[in-house]
Automatic annotation (TrEMBL):
This is Pectinesterase. Belongs to the pectinesterase family. The keyword Transmembrane applies. PROSITE patterns: PECTINESTERASE_2 (PS00503). The keyword Glycoprotein applies. Residues 97-391 form the Pectinesterase catalytic domain. It is found in: Secreted, Cell wall. The active site is at D250. It is an enzyme of class 3 (hydrolase). Its EC number is 3.1.1.11.
Amino acid sequence: MNLKSISLTFSVAIFAVLWASKHLIFSNPNSQYLKYFVDLGLTTSSISPIISLLIPFSFNINARHHHKKQDNKGKKVSICDDFQPGIPPDTNTTSYVCVDRNGCCNFTLVQAAVDAVPDLSQKRTVIWINTGIYYEKVTVRINKTNVTFQGQGYLSTAISWNDTANSSHGTFYSGSVQVFGANFIAKNISFMNVAPIPKPGDFGAQAVAIRVSGDQSAFWGCGFFGAQDTLHDDKGRHYFRDCYIQGSIDFIFGNARSLYENCRLVSMANPVAPGSKSISGVLTAHGRTSNENNTGYSFVNCIVGGSGRVWLGRAWRPFARVVFINTTMTDIIAPEGWNDFNDPTRDQTIFYGEYNCSGAGANLTMRASYVQKLNDTQADPFLNVSFIDGNDWLQPIDAN
Ligand SMILES: *[C@@H]1O[C@H](CO)[C@@H](O)[C@H](O)[C@H]1NC(C)=O
Ligand SMILES: *[C@@H]1O[C@H](CO)[C@@H](O)[C@H](O)[C@H]1NC(C)=O
Ligand SMILES: *[C@@H]1O[C@H](CO)[C@@H](O)[C@H](O)[C@H]1NC(C)=O
Ligand SMILES: *[C@@H]1O[C@H](CO)[C@@H](O)[C@H](O)[C@H]1NC(C)=O
Ligand SMILES: *[C@@H]1O[C@H](CO)[C@@H](O)[C@H](O)[C@H]1NC(C)=O
Ligand SMILES: *[C@@H]1O[C@H](CO)[C@@H](O)[C@H](O)[C@H]1NC(C)=O
Ligand SMILES: *[C@@H]1O[C@H](CO)[C@@H](O)[C@H](O)[C@H]1NC(C)=O
Ligand SMILES: *[C@@H]1O[C@H](CO)[C@@H](O)[C@H](O)[C@H]1NC(C)=O
Ligand SMILES: *[C@@H]1O[C@H](CO)[C@@H](O)[C@H](O)[C@H]1NC(C)=O
Ligand SMILES: *[C@@H]1O[C@H](CO)[C@@H](O)[C@H](O)[C@H]1NC(C)=O
Ligand SMILES: *[C@@H]1O[C@H](CO)[C@@H](O)[C@H](O)[C@H]1NC(C)=O
Ligand SMILES: *[C@@H]1O[C@H](CO)[C@@H](O)[C@H](O)[C@H]1NC(C)=O
């Protein structure tokens, strides 16, 4: 336990924020972080409504001085006085550790908690993460198995960093969070990459929010924020439910086998002039390399919207496989729907399907010739968790 006593002026401001909003706080208002997030708020608020919702709580401390509690005047108070993580005791199958950036429990950094997880653990370790933005790059190495990140809500708990392809030996290593360990779970937390939004023609500016490379991973109520290449859904079998995923170009990409249920896919691609046929973004870039692999992305009961004029997917690799089922799409989807990476030889090998979707973007009349209008039989393998063998490994959300 590392209690920090802090001076009145600052602590009352923090209490005011905590009290009023139970949202994000910073322990040191003069830190680099603060300036960084102020800048971030200014540059992204116009295009990213959710980031702008999340960010103000992290730097608006000075603006809240008028909420001062006068009765505390002169006294030193601890920021941890009211801290109650409320995490359950360890059981035979689960251990709990706590992360709070103000130092009110076991760890102040998420990475420190991950490092403390025993290697190749068969027991689950739940890392309980308090509200706040954790400005750090986090890696869950291949030996850190059965780890859960439990946040307090995707709009109030986030892990954020700002590596780009240039700053990190390539796009694949730019993730703010990188997960290689199997059986990883995340609940009610956001993953963000806040590197500058790439300008057209920029080289090396791609910036991943999270790379998911471990098998049997599940994400419940999570947020994924980035501009380009947000969610590197790399390999293994993954489940995403009730998630918010934002980006512009290829913002869900990789060669995993994943089911996305009840998720919101929000394009922040640049708007195009009315009547223009240009494309400003792409939702998916699946990377299946052979039809012997059963990888692919299935989106079921999702909502697609946002800005720009975008494709549902483009064929990053020749055997890309993506289906949209029962999904509502706004008119940001271009009428042709998909793209073969401008390589017609891929038209015979890609598998792009749509089934029972609705909304202005789901009109199949003008779709590219290779798009499959799936019938009931063809849609069946993609409808539920059996697509990812979920009956063998996926636990219910409340199973910790
Ligand atoms: C937990 O493990 C202990 C020691 O192995 C055992 O005695 C106890 O019955 C176990 N409890 C449960 C709930 O399985
Ligand atoms: C975390 O803190 C709790 C409460 O102080 C303590 O019981 C537990 O041993 C700590 N765990 C670790 C891994 O430090
Ligand atoms: C831990 O992970 C292994 C494989 O990595 C898996 O077989 C096992 O079921 C997991 N245990 C729990 C408690 O999640
Ligand atoms: C993973 O664990 C194994 C067995 O304990 C060990 O040999 C190996 O060096 C570890 N790998 C990493 C990357 O930590
Ligand atoms: C990340 O942000 C820090 C703080 O603003 C800055 O110094 C650094 O250059 C940024 N890194 C990249 C790759 O943009
Ligand atoms: C996640 O957050 C939602 C909304 O705040 C809450 O209803 C739910 O219980 C939380 N679930 C978990 C597993 O954290
Ligand atoms: C990335 O690095 C290349 C080569 O050093 C450079 O030309 C380019 O401008 C950099 N991109 C960004 C976005 O900084
Ligand atoms: C894809 O399938 C080929 C041939 O079966 C196999 O060698 C390769 O390892 C598979 N790749 C992945 C990522 O599963
Ligand atoms: C499609 O959505 C409807 C409700 O709008 C639901 O009843 C139906 O089960 C969904 N189909 C699938 C395959 O999830
Ligand atoms: C198709 O979508 C409609 C809503 O748009 C829903 O009512 C219906 O249940 C869906 N059918 C299937 C088979 O999922
Ligand atoms: C679908 O698009 C075609 C061609 O643009 C158009 O004629 C038709 O009215 C559209 N259907 C619906 C239901 O909007
Ligand atoms: C669905 O489409 C496949 C492939 O075109 C076809 O073989 C099958 O008979 C169709 N099934 C139904 C129920 O229409």
